[in-house]
Amino acid sequence: MLYIVTPVFNRQNFTVNYLNSLRNQIFKDFKIIIIDDGSTDATSEIIQDQFPEVILLKFPGELWWAEATNIGVKHAMSLGASYIMTMNDDTLLESCFLEKMMGIASDNPAAILGTIGVHADTGAIIDGGWNINWKTAKYENKLHSLKIEDRYGLHAVNVAPGRSLLIPVSVFEKIGFYDSKNFPQAVADFDFTIRAFNYGFKIFCSYDAKIAMYQGASGGVELILNKSVRNYYQHLFGIKGAGNLIRFTVFAFKNAPKKYLLSFWILGVLRRLINYFTIKPSL
To answer: What is the pTM of this model?
Structure first.
C-alpha cells in the first residue's frame, strides 16, 4: 500500500489545491497522511470538512518539515505501508502521476524515485534531478547535462528533493529516518537520500512523471527574492535559509568523502556567502 505523507502549515489554498489533485488521480490504491503542525488558518478544519478520506495528524507547532515527515512516515509504517511518498503541498499533480510512478516502481522495486519539477505557470522544467559533485562542491541539475531528445525515462542521480519522492519502506528500515535534529527544515531530504545512496540504494529521477511547482512558495526562495541585510542573515543562519552555513557544515562532515571534505566545505561556504546576491530563482 502506498501512503503519501505531507506536512502543512498555514497554506490552506495550496493544501486544498494539492489535495484536489490527489483526489483526481487515476491510480486509487493509496492513502494520504497530512501532518498539520500548528496551523492557525483553519487548514485542519477545511481538511476534516472537505477531505474526510485524509488521515489528519495535528500538532501544536515547531516540528518543522523533517520531524513532521518522520511522524507521518512512522504512522504509515504502523499501518502497513510498503511505499512512502513524501510530498509538499505547494505542488500539483497531473491525473496520471501516481499511475506512472507506481508503474515505474514495479520495475524498480528497491529504488528511490524522484520526478522532474515544472514551472506551475509555464510548464518549463525547473528541477531535472540532482547530483552533488563533491570535488567542486556544486549541486548539478541533471537537466543541463541532457540533450532534449534524451529527456525521458529514468536518469540516475545521487540525491533528491523530498517534495516528490517515492521511497520503499525498506529504505527507512535500513537507514533510519530524516535527521530532524541536525536538519529540521532545509537539507534533510538531501542528507537522507545521500545516506541511502551510500548504503547502496539506487536513486532515479523520472522524466516521464512530473509535478508542477510553485517555487516562490518556499521560505528559502522568499529570502532570496526579497534581498536585504536581514534576509541575507536569515539565508545564512535562519532555519529556512537555503544557504544555512551551520547546516551545510554538518552535512559536509556527515556525508562528504574524506578526500574531498575540506575542498567541498570551503568552496561550499564561499558559494553560500556570495551566491545570495546573484541567484535568480525561476518563478
So the answer is: 0.93
